[in-house]
Please model this.
Amino acid sequence: MKKPGDCESLEDVRGAIDALDREIVAPLGARSRYVEAAARFKTSEGNVHAPERQRAMLEERRRWAKEEGLSPEVIEDLYKTSSPTS
Model:
């Protein structure tokens, strides 16, 4: 895959984006399976929702997004939508 500055056409850019999106989706699928596995260990209502854990997790993901120059709000929405009880 070419680096962004080395792309010579829109097709190069689109091909790289498609390849990266494929790489992004696979770990999201793996994460989802871990979230499902976590349910086996959540024995009480407090464990299922774990608001403090979710708050801390989202804060960290927002920080990571900022470090990467991404919108913290978009990343937070992604995690809230993909795994509301993680």
